[in-house]
Amino acid sequence: MLTADQIAAMVDARIHGDPGTTISGVSSFDDAGPKDLTFAVDHSFFSRLDETKAGIILVPNEAPAVSGITLLYSDNPKLAFFKVVEHLMPAEPLKEFIHPSAVIADDCIIGDGTRIEAHVSIGPGCTIGSYVHIMANTVIGKQCRLNDACRISPNVTLVDKTRIGRQTIIHPNCVIGSDGFGFVQDGHAHAKLLHTGYVQIGDGCEIGACNTIDRGTLGITRIGNGVKTDNQVHIAHNVKIGDDTLVVAQVAIAGSTTIGKNVIIAGKAGISGHLEIGDGAIVGPYAGVSANVSPGDIVSGIPHMSHKIWLKVSRIIPRLPSLRTRLLSLEKRIKKLEGSSTEQS
Is residue 248 part of a domain? Predict the structure, then answer.
């Protein structure tokens, strides 16, 4: 149970309404009840503040005041909300444990406080840090290194020599370090290239469910610190991704492309190989990137172009059939006029 006063002190918010209002849970804007805390960030919610049944609402500083409702004004209401969530629903402390069904090579080094669940397999030469949580059915190959406090979800495969940074989270069913799509033409056949590289993922990353990240053909596929990827992302061999970049669902990045720092790649975008995407760039959803993108640029469309131009192009595309009809009609009229002119002369 928390009062509005206590929450305001916890998240540095300003109170409008009754500071003694109490909540015991959290919920979404539409599902909240009188004992729930919720938040409203988008302007579309501001006219509906009196519709939610929530006991307390966290809002940005520009939100209007509404009489009879307890509001907490915050610089970042969404972040503040999830700080309260962490307070009300703290994570269970990690208990050191190795399940009897785990198969661990004799020469592995395992730090203090680490938990290894059922049917985990860890190959020779691995180093597992302290307070690491490796969940059921995960397979870790030879000479892998997992740094302190990382979390590996069920059914993950880490291929030989993979490196995972501190406090990084790998979600279920990821395959990290598999061979890239590397073949060379040999007559009419495609000969496989031997992959000797590996994947290195930095500190504080979060890799979404069902990601596939290929090992370098010879060198390193490198994911920087603080990178967050959504579900079903594919990152090919020798890709480099800079710190704090966001990669949204179903993005595919082809081999040897370099992505800068603080880049946003929106859902279902495809990026060709051997390109450079500059720091702070934004790639729009469904974009097909076939050339370098300069730092800070915002691009969309197929092939990619300036987002401002793409907005104009996308408005024209639905009109193309009618524009074609008009163009054919104009061509016929011009031919008629030209024929009349020839006859008169």
Answer: yes
